[in-house]
Amino acid sequence: MTPIRILGIDPGLRRTGWGLISVVGAKLTYVDCGVVTSDGDLPLALRLRELHEGITRVVSGFSPDEVAVEETFVNKDAQATLKLGHARAIALLVPALAGLPVSEYAANLVKKTVCGSGHAEKVQIQAMVKFLMPKAEFKTADAADALAIAVTHANHRGAHALKKLHAPVAGVSGLAAARIAAALAKG
Amino acid sequence: MTPIRILGIDPGLRRTGWGLISVVGAKLTYVDCGVVTSDGDLPLALRLRELHEGITRVVSGFSPDEVAVEETFVNKDAQATLKLGHARAIALLVPALAGLPVSEYAANLVKKTVCGSGHAEKVQIQAMVKFLMPKAEFKTADAADALAIAVTHANHRGAHALKKLHAPVAGVSGLAAARIAAALAKG
Prior knowledge:
With 187 residues, chain A is α/β, with parallel strands linked by helices. Chain A has helices at 44-62, 78-97, 107-115, 122-132, 141-156, 174-186; strands at residues 4-10, 15-24, 27-37, 66-70, 102-105. Chain A has one domain: Ribonuclease H-like superfamily/Ribonuclease H (Nucleotidyltransferase, domain 5, 2-Layer Sandwich).
C-alpha cells in the first residue's frame, strides 16, 4: 500500500501549527511538525505574507497528499474571531493553490477523535498524540494540535471511521490499542 | 508628475469589489473597476483560491502602485465576520505577495472621506464616486465601494488631507468642487 502523507494545520495569526503524518492503512507514522509564526509588529498584510511563505515552504518541502485544517472556533470576541479567520484563509489557500484536497474539521471533532471526548484539554491531546505516534516530537501545543488534526483526517477520510481508534488494528500494537480503548472509555 | 495608480478593494467572500484610479496631485482619474466572485457551492478552500486568482489577475493586469483595502466591519453575526475575514485575508495577501504597500481604511472613514459623513448610504457613495470621477462605470455597489476606498487612500496617503475634497483643487472643476463642498456641508 502506498503511504498517504497528511498535513494537519492549526491556524493562528501569531502561530500556525503544522504536523505531517504518514498513513498506511490504519498505521500512523509521525513525519515532522512545527510552527509558522508571524511578527506581531508588522502590518496585517505582511503578517499574512509571512504565514503564506511559511505554509508554502511546508507544503512544497513535504509534498503532502491531503491537507486537514481546523475549523475556527467562533467565540464572543469578534476581533479574535476575525484574526483567526485571516490566518485560516491562508492555511486553506496555500494547499488549494497547490491543487491539494483540503478537509476541515471542527475542534471538538478533533478532540473526540483523538481523545474520545469533545471537551478534552490540550494536555490530553498532547498525551494522546504522543501515545499514537511515540516518535512525535512537538515543542508547542499548536504543533501537537496540528498532528491531532492530521490524525483526525486519517480516521475520517474515505472508509476510515472513528471506531478504528477503539479497536486493535494493524500498526497499533495490542498494548497501545488496549490503552487507547481504555483512555477512550474513560474520556 | 508621475501618476500613481491606486487599487481599492472591498472584500467579500461572494463578491470582492475592486476599483482602480490614477492620481496626479489632487486629480483623480477613473481607470477601471469590477467584481471578483467565488462560487458559493464550492468548498471554502476553492472559493478562496478563486478570489486569489481573480485578485491576482487584477493586480498583475493593472500593476497598481498602492493598494487600499476596507477594514472588516465586525458585526454581531460572528459567522459572517469570519467569512469576511477569510475574503479580506486574500485581498491583503495578494498585493503583499506582489510587494505592494497595502493600507487599510475603516468603512466609516471611507464614507466620511467621500461623502462627508461616516453614516452615508451606499447610494450616496455611488453618487459621489460618479461625481468625483464622471467617467466611472460601475455595475455593482461593491465596485463603487472599491473606488471609494481608492479615493479615500488618494486623500489620506502622504501629505493629502481630508480637506482637499472640500476646497476647489486642480483636477476638480470649480462647479464640481463647489457641489462637493455643498454636499459635504449637508452631510
